[in-house]
non-reducing end alpha-L-arabinofuranosidase (Actinoplanes nipponensis), 502 residues
Amino acid sequence: MLSASFILDPAFTIAPVSRRTFGSFVEHMGRCVYTGIYEPSHPTADADGFRADVLALTRELGVSVVRYPGGNFVSGYRWEDGIGPVADRPVRRDLAWHSLETNEIGIDEFMRWAGKAGVEVMYAVNLGTRGVQEALDVQEYLNQPDRTHLARLRQANGHPEPYGVTMFCLGNELDGPWQTGHKTAHEYGRLAVETARAMRSAEPGLELVACGSSSSAMPTFAAWEAEVLELTYDAVDYISAHAYYEPHDGDLGSFLASAVDMDHFVTSVAATADSVGARLKSDKKLKISFDEWNVWYQSAFHAQQATGWEVAPRVIEDSYNVVDAVVVGSLLISLLRHSDRVTAACLAQLVNVIAPIRTEPDGPAWRQTIFHPFALTSRLARGEVLRVEARSPGYETARFGTVPVLDAVATHDAGSGEVTVFVVNRHLTESLDLAVSLAGFPAGLRVGESWTLADDDLYAVNTAADPDRVVPRAAKDAEVTDGVLRAALPPASWTAVRLTTG
Ligand code: AHR
C-alpha cells in the first residue's frame, strides 16, 4: 500500500476561488447549439425552444460563465446574420467545421438562454475575417443602452435593456494555421491592440482577453505570447490558454499526469507575461483565461474530419470513461492551484461536442463521467485556495518523467470554517493511503461529505441506456481522528472531502 501526506494551514493561501474558474463553452459546432441547448420540437422544450433538461443539467453542473459563439467558428462568423426575424436570416457555410449554419440561434436567443441558465457570457469577437469595426458593432449591439443605431436595432428586436457583457475574447486561436484568418504574432498583436483600444474607449471597464497559444505543443508557444503581449500589454487584462489531453498509444500513466502539462503551461505563460511586464516597467499583472480545456480524443477526430456541409452534424461526440473523469478532476485541481493567475477557465464544450452533457434529438440528456468532478468541484470549492506541498511517492511516465502519485489542492471558507480537499490518486493499480494534518485549524473539523470517482473498469462510460453507470460514491472510510484526515484512495481515482465544523 502506498501512502502520501500533507499539512493544511489556513495561512497557506494562494488566492480566492474565482467563480469564473467553473466556466464552459458553447460553440456553433456540431450539435452543441442545435439539438444541444436548442431543440424546439423536443418534449422538454420551453417557449423559446430551449431544452429544459439541458438547462437543468447546466445549472446542476455549476457553470458560472459561458464562452460564445466560438471557437474556430467565430473566425468566419458574421454576428449580424443571427439577429432579427429568424425567417430572414441567411444560411451560411461554416468553414471551420464544414457544416451549414442556419443562424436560427444568434446573440439575442443565446443571451436569453444564458439568463435562464444563470450564467455570465464571455463573448468572442471575430478577428479572423473581420476587424475593429465589427468588434465595435457587436459591442454596441450588446452593451449600448440606447439612442444609437445598433442599440435601437437591439431594442427593435425585443431587447430594451443592454446585456452588459464585460468579458470579450479578442478572436480565437489565431496562432493556429487551421484558423480562418490565421496571423503572425505581430499581425495579430497589432489588430488586437487596435480593437482593444477602440472597445475600451467606448467602455473603459471591459475585461479583454488576447489570444495566447492553442496548446503548449505549438511551435510558437511562449514566443507568440511574448510578441503579442509586447503589443497589447496595456490594453488587455487576460492572455488565453487552450489545452486538450488524450492518452497516446494507450499510455494511461502519462495521461493521468496531464495536469503536469497544464501546470507547466500556466507557469510558462505567467513567466512570459511577467517578463514583458518587467521590460515595460508595468505594475500590472496579466491574468490567464484558460478558456478551452478538456479531454479530447483528437487523434481519432483528424481521421474523420470531413462533415459534408450538413446542419448540426455529429462531430467529436466523445464518450468519456472513468480515467477521463479522473483527468478532468486533476485538471481542475491544477486550475485551482493557479488561482493567483488563472481567474477564468472554460471546460470545452458544454453539450454533445466534447462535453459533460450529452443529448439525443427527441431523446434523453445525460451526465457524462466528466460531469461529476466538475459539478462537485464547482459546488465545494469555496473561499481561499490553500497551497499544498505533499509528500508523495512518484511513478515513471513516458511523457513527463517521474510524477507524484498524489495530486491535491484544498480550499478554506473562513466564513463557514469549512475546508474541502480535492485529491487524485494517479496510480493505475495501487491504492494510496492519505493523511492530511489539520493542526492549523481549530479542533472539531469532521467529514461533512466525501465523494470518490473510481471503478474496477477504467473504460466504463455513461450512455443514454445506462446514464448512471459511473457516478461518484461516498468515500466511506474518510474520517478525521486526532486532527488528521485519513482516506484510502482507490487506484486511478478522484476524491473530494468536505470538512465541516458543525
Ligand atoms: O473546442 C473545439 C475547438 O478546439 C475550438 O473550436 C477551437 O478553438 C479549438 O481548436
